[in-house]
Design a protein that fits this description.
Butyryl-Coa Dehydrogenase, subunit A, domain 1; 4-stranded antiparallel beta sheet; globular; 3 domains; Butyryl-CoA Dehydrogenase, subunit A, domain 3; alpha+beta; 3-stranded mixed beta sheet; Butyryl-CoA Dehydrogenase, subunit A, domain 2; 384 residues; 50% helix
Length: 384
């Protein structure tokens, strides 16, 4: 659903220009400094990138799902850290408040997230609750007008720099699985919350990730997301259902970028007196990359349109996330192969950085194997 094609085309043009003229020139600096330059961050704020999927009434752009993924396909062709910096505000960090937040919670938090004044994150994963996300051990005990949270979250994107955290915790101590899990909006300033030192990672420099520690963390009852206990896991699943379509697009943009880099290299790299682009085995890898990128884009856009029509896309969202992240990995591998030795040496090409950066795509928001199981379960259930 593209609401105004003319203005949206102008929006996409501006995103492309930002990526090529502002973001791409900063990529080496981001890698070396492990942070996004303040000038680029301020540009992201001024141009409204933090509020893409937040409703207009709260200062966002209110993009439809189709508009969101088309924008993501362009933005994600810049260094992964750039889209990760705004990604929690346009996705999992705000979506729970958008879909299930009370009126007061929306008024209080969404404008700050849309402007980029505050950064958000989603804190679900724990040492014993990864792929088995419902195995949450963090607890929340009601005490007067507050909840007292105790537990630990890990592998949380943007945790070191976040201002607010959507935290899942078990409010019913006798419950198991997803039942009895609630979500809370926790501000960094609230007593008892702290974040660990950013991890050393394989890739994605400039995108900080760390643990979150909750030790007798006191959270006002007004910050129980949606104002109802026991609905937290459902809220997270709603957020992830949309975000998996978004993430699929964010995984396809890098594939587009890497293929373009490989094509440019193949046209200029001379071997046996000819550009290697002339050789059929190189052409075969280029063809495979282009075909898989086209297939991923087609799946993503079709699923986005289906969601905008109000249809159930739980199965399709899972398939998009699974397929797009897997093809991104295959494209990265082929592109490094096309570069040859230069693809392994950081001094010669940034393709090795992309190879490291995109490896995480197949792990977060559900590993490929978890999505395979979910897809199969849904297909088998539908056929019974």
């Amino acid at each position: 659903m593209i609401r105004d094609p003319k203005s949206f085309n102008s929006f996409l043009k501006n995103v492309r220009e930002f990526v090529r003229n502002k973001a791409m020139p900063c990529e080496n600096e981001i890698e070396l400094s492990d942070q996004i330059p303040h000038s680029l961050l301020n540009q992201l704020r001024e141009d409204g990138y933090f509020g893409w999927s937040i409703p207009e009434e709260f200062g966002g752009a209110g993009l439809t799902t189709e508009e969101l993924v088309l924008g993501a396909l362009e933005l994600s062709q810049a260094a992964v850290a750039v889209r990760a910096r705004v990604g929690t505000n346009t996705g999992i960090g705000s979506e729970g408040i958008v879909v299930d937040g009370t009126s007061d919670q929306k008024q209080r938090y969404l404008p700050k997230l849309a402007s980029g004044e505050w950064t958000s994150c989603l804190a679900v994963t724990e040492p014993d609750a990864g792929s088995e996300a419902s195995n949450i051990k963090t607890t929340a005990r009601r005490e007067g007008e507050d909840y007292i949270l105790n537990g630990e979250k890990c592998y949380i994107t943007n945790a070191p720099i976040a201002d607010i955290f959507t935290v899942t915790a078990r409010t019913d101590p006798n419950s198991k699985g997803s039942k009895g899990v609630s979500s809370f909006i926790v501000e960094r300033s609230m007593f008892g919350l702290s974040t660990g030192k950013p991890y050393r990672k394989m890739g994605q420099a400039g995108s900080p990730v760390s643990d979150i520690h909750l030790i007798d963390c006191r959270v006002p009852a007004a910050n129980l997301l949606g104002g109802v206990e026991g609905k937290g896991f459902s809220t997270v699943m709603k957020a992830l259902n949309k975000q998996r379509i978004h993430l699929a697009a964010l995984s396809t943009g890098p594939a587009i970028r890497m293929l373009q880099m490989a094509i440019e290299h193949a046209k200029t790299r001379i071997q046996f007196g000819r550009p290697i682009a002339d050789f059929q085995l190189i052409q075969a890898m280029i063809a495979d990359c282009q075909t898989e990128i086209y297939a991923a884009k087609s799946m993503i856009i079709e699923t986005a349109c289906k969601r905008d029509r109000g249809e159930d896309v739980v199965l399709e969202a899972s398939m998009c996330k699974y397929f797009a992240t897997e093809i991104c990995g295959r494209v990265a591998d082929r592109c490094v192969q096309i570069f040859g030795g230069a693809g392994f040496v950081a001094d010669h090409s940034s393709i090795e950085r992309w190879y490291r950066d995109i490896r995480l795509f197949r792990l977060y928001e559900g590993t490929s194997q978890i999505h395979q199981l979910n897809i199969a379960k849904q297909v088998l259930a539908a056929s019974s």
